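task queued by scheduler; priority normal; single chain, no ligands, no partner chains; default sampling; output format set to structure tokens
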Amino acid sequence: MPWIDAPHEDEWADDVLEMRDQVIDPVYERVDWIMRIHSLDAGSMAAHNVLYQQAMRGTKTLRKAEREMLALVVSQANDCHY
């Protein structure tokens, strides 16, 4: 399994820190590991966040809650806690 050492949000550069409110999990009040990895590059974090928001946006055929459930099942099948 690959491992990337990513800084804690207290160590983020200012341009990345500005995005903290957009990427923090409001329930657990923490930043997911994948976003911490993206904190190494502000453009990467912004792009990932846009992609995630678009993918999880509800549509006429699949609500956001249903998309989240599918993501959970896929993560479990892949033995991934994210």
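post-processing summary
- The chain has five helices and two strands.
- Residues 9-77 form one domain.
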